[in-house]
Amino acid sequence: MLALYETFSVTFEGSGLVRPPGSVIEDSFLGVCIRCGACAKTCPTGAILLAAWNDGFREIGTPKIDALRGPCERIQGRCEQDAQCQLVCPTGAIQRVERESIKTGSALINRDRCIAWRGGVCLVCYEVCPVTGAISLERENRPIFNADVCVGCGRCVYACPAQPKALTLTSNGEKRPRVG
Amino acid sequence: MESSNGKSEPRKRLVNRRTFFGLLIAAAAAVAGIVSIDSILSKNPAPETSTSTTVATPAATTTAPTPTVIKTDSSTSIASFSDTNVAQVVVVKGTANTDPQVLVDKALEALGGVENLVPAGMNILVKPNVGFYDKDPTTDPRITAAVVKALKAARPGQIVVGESSLRGVDAGYALQATGTRSLAEAAGAEVKDLTKDSVVSVTIPNGIAIKSVEVFKTVRDSFIVSVPKLKRHSDTTVTISMKNMMGTVPDSEKGRFHQTNLHQCVADLNSALRPKLVIVDATKAMTQRGPSGGVMVALNLVIASTDPVAADVIAAQQLFQAEGVADASTAVGRIEHIQDAAKIGVGVADPSRIQVLNVSVA
């Protein structure tokens, strides 16, 4: 019974989902987002997924970035001019934020899984990172992740060739606007 | 439950049997309802389809009109280089104002002329480096277009400009954003995001780390012209004509190379899919760091050869010299994938067996 209760409360509380770039602060977001799914449909990389019940009961149907499906291209790529998700959002749950101020979260490395940290040859994360200084190199061949500089685009996570992946995208450090 | 007189009575059922089964069925129906609502609510747009892994077998046709004879390169043996073999590399130097077409034309002329380099009727794959969305880390689209235009003189079957970029970089968008698509199409090529191609398996008889590799069908069936950008690289020291060939395999294979041994896998790949002609875009080279975020330096060079190893050696020397590296030749000797490739017969890495022809144009 206790185990059931534990699972149940995790389901209700949810976990820190990575939200589309420019999403308003979480408490407001859950009220403003109407779960229409337009952002997910329009995202050019397919990075936006709609949260399911295991992401939290209140979060069901709201958009989250899943870096395993694709990176967010607001920082570099097809959404440099405008975040496509923001353009189609009918309620302002996703607001227009200057590209320089975007931070959807930060990448987190598991060195036990990283090919480079295990002695192999790989710096794909470093190669694809669009932000100078978010990933630096130790001894010129192992990546060090600087969460303060990272903007949370998820390119590194998507590109990581380790199996299982050595990188995850978290909402740590996210910067989100207030409503209005 | 106690009765009023203090004696215990047989336990009274809360529900009778009918009610119990009714409740059970209602609970099951509720669960089924919740599950179906959940699957509707969590319906997501389909993710980007990954590269097709099915091999497309061409359907047999009863009538087969063939106005032009299309030949495919069927040679499977790797050129092996004896000790007496000397590789030729042409280095064409221009100025900042030299037309890229002039640089490319001069290079091909010095190598013996495009009609002698490419058999007529071949399907050609021009493989530029379009691994990123930006111009600095990618082959100058004017060079790519110039190569396409120059190859027309060989009366090829079809010229395809194709790329599969780094995992997560959309090759279709990269080809468009860099200007490669418009210029290459104007020059007469078909421009392809190779990730939309079907995938076939190619064996690597001389492979050391890998004995077979999956590649895009267009690559296997074409005369390969590697048109890389001269750059530094965080993993392989430099990325030139051979590292450029990683854009001919699907993302899963790129990953396998990193999981196995990147240097040897690049060499092995090139032994099976050896570029028959290399034209290095060294008009602007990426120095200090790469494959992105380095310092761009105008060298105004195009480096060409029919030997990808020799081309990479000479191009790397040029890069190191531009950076002011003390002993450029020795530094090149330490580049693993180049040495690995020479060892399995992809080409000549020994500078004493590479003949460099320097050409200057206004």
What is this structure, in a nutshell?
The complex is a heterodimer of chains A (180) and B (362). Chain A is an alpha+beta fold and 180 residues long. Chain A has 6 helices and 6 strands.
- Rounded to the nearest angstrom, the distance between the terminal CA atoms of chain B is 108 Å
Number of helices of chain B: 12
Give the end-to-end Cα distance of chain A, rounded to a whole number of Å.
Answer: 44 Å
Residue runs with pLDDT of under 50 for 5 or more positions of chain B:
1-7, 46-83
- Beta-strand residue percentage of chain A: 5-15%
What value does the average pLDDT of chain B take? Answer: 88
Count of separate structural domains of chain A: 2
| Major protein interface | A-B, 39 and 29 residues
What is the CATH topology of the largest domain in chain A?
Answer: Alpha-Beta Plaits
* Shape, principal axes of CA atoms of chain A: globular
CATH architecture of the largest domain in chain A: 2-Layer Sandwich
Average residue-wise pLDDT of chain A: 92
Oligomer: heterodimer
Number of strands of chain A: 6
Count the DSSP helices of chain A.
Answer: 6
Order of helices and strands of chain A: HHHEEHEHEEHE
The number of domains of chain B: 1
The CATH architecture of chain B would be 3-Layer(aba) Sandwich
Can you walk me through this structure?
The complex is a heterodimer of chains A (180) and B (362). By secondary structure, chain A is α+β, with helices and mostly antiparallel strands. Chain A folds into 2 domains: 2-101, Alpha-Beta Plaits, CATH 3.30.70; 106-170, Alpha-Beta Plaits (2-Layer Sandwich), CATH 3.30.70. In chain A, 22% of the residues lie in helices and 12% in strands. Chain A contains 6 helices and 6 strands, in the order αααββαβαββαβ. In chain A, 46% of the residues are buried. With 362 residues, chain B is an alpha/beta fold. Chain B has one domain (87-360): Rossmann fold (3-Layer(aba) Sandwich). Chain B contains 12 helices and 12 strands. Chain B has helices at residues 17-41, 100-110, 114-117, 141-151, 171-177, 180-187, 217-220, 251-260, 262-272, 308-323, 328-333, 336-343, and strands at residues 87-93, 123-128, 158-163, 190-193, 199-203, 212-216, 223-227, 229-233, 237-239, 277-287, 295-305, 354-360. In chain B, helix 4 (141-151) packs parallel to helix 6 and helix 9 (262-272) crosses helix 12 (336-343). The longest helix of chain B is centred in the first third of the chain and has 25 residues, at 17-41. The N and C termini of chain B lie far apart (108 Å). The model of chain B is unreliable at 1-7 and 46-83 (pLDDT under 50). Classes of the chains: A alpha+beta (180), B alpha/beta (362). At the A-B interface, helix 5 and helix 6 of A face helix 8 of B.
